[in-house]
Amino acid sequence: MSRSFLGNKRLAHEELSAQRTLRKVRPGKLEQFSTELCLIAHGIRSACLVDAFAVQDPVSLFSRVLAGLRSKSATFADIVHWYDPSSLQSFIVNSRILRAFARTLLEDNTAVTYILLDVFPTLLYSTPKTVLNVICAMNADMLESQAKVSFSFVDGLTQDNLVPLAATLIGYPVAYVPVSADQTSFLSGQPLDVYEAIVVPATPRVSSLQGSNQSHTLLKFSCLCLLAETNRELLPERVTKRIQSQFSESLSSIGSSLLVHHHVEVVDRVAL
Questions:
Q1: What is the rounded average pLDDT of the residues 151-174?
Q2: Which InterPro entries does this chain map to (predicted)?
Q3: Which of 114, 116, 145, 146 is 20 to 30 Å apart from 240, CA to CA?
Q4: Strand partners, 82
């Protein structure tokens, strides 16, 4: 990876390690999240879901961390924290990249493929209105309060809104849409195309940070195999090409490349 990326990753790791609330988090988890932070800060992706660790007061924690990073490197100037009080989930977002992505969603209905998880799953041919509305509201809030580092979603988002919203923010090319807020069964026993996109450093570089040159999972998601029979854009080779097209050029700017692995899997219940 490039010197600038590794330098910023070191800054992120140091800032996270200095937080008392994270002292019991395993070093590997802080390493993983430091990489995620820098992939967003360097514009590789627009957002990530924070799942490496959980804390009681994420708003305070990420306000401190991001304010500290902004004071040390301009690379982190556009990075903010978004918190959903309904699900207690946190997202790290690049406000500049998200603004550009919102324009893409408005202009191109094929940017993300949405699958409605009805009794017979079907494709939606436009971005769900709630997803667009929330992302537009996010952009408006971030433009209005550019000095802020932490924001909150409106309370009351349910899984039928939050699941496709999260998938869209994270950068999945395929997103599931539950039919209701209380749906509990998802694609049980159905063959799924499972994709894992992995960031691989193009050349080894010596770094004092353990694991700095190791591969990192950027995305892992699935798509119902059956739908590829009627929609060629969901064929594994097409989806793989979409992922490569989405990330390869930006990854080359930090001295990395992308590998996409695919396999077919049947599970009892898909975790959304």
A1: 95
A2: DUF4504
A3: 116
A4: 91, 151
As a three-state string, the secondary structure of 38-68 is HHHHCCCCCEEECCCCCCCCHHHHHHHHHHH
- CB 161 within 8 Å of CB 131: yes
**Residue 204: which pLDDT band, with cuts at 50, 70 and 90?**
low
Judged by DSSP in three states, 107 sits in helix
DSSP state, residue 73: -
At 252 the three-state DSSP class reads helix
For 47, residues 6+ apart whose C-beta sits below 8 A from its C-beta are: 40, 82, 91, 92, 93, 94, 98, 169, 170, 171
Task: Please give the Cα distance from 231 to 174 (Å, whole number).
Answer: 13
* pLDDT, tens digit, 9 for 90 and up, residues 76-112: 999 999 999 999 999 999 999 999 999 999 888 889 9
> In the structure encoding, which two tokens stand for residue 264, read together?
């077919």
Residue 203's pLDDT band (cuts 50, 70, 90):
low
pTM reported for the whole predicted model? 0.93
Tokens of 140: 């408006």
- Report the distance separating Cα 9 and Cα 15, nearest Å: 10
| Angstrom distance (rounded) from CA 257 to CA 198 | 8
Q: Could you tell me which residues come within 8 angstroms of residue 157 by beta carbon, excluding any fewer than 6 positions away?
A: 84, 86, 87, 134, 165
pLDDT digits (tens, 9 = 90+) for 47-75: 999 999 999 999 999 999 999 999 999 99
- Residue 223's alpha-carbon distances to 52, 127, 240, in angstroms, are 24, 17, 12
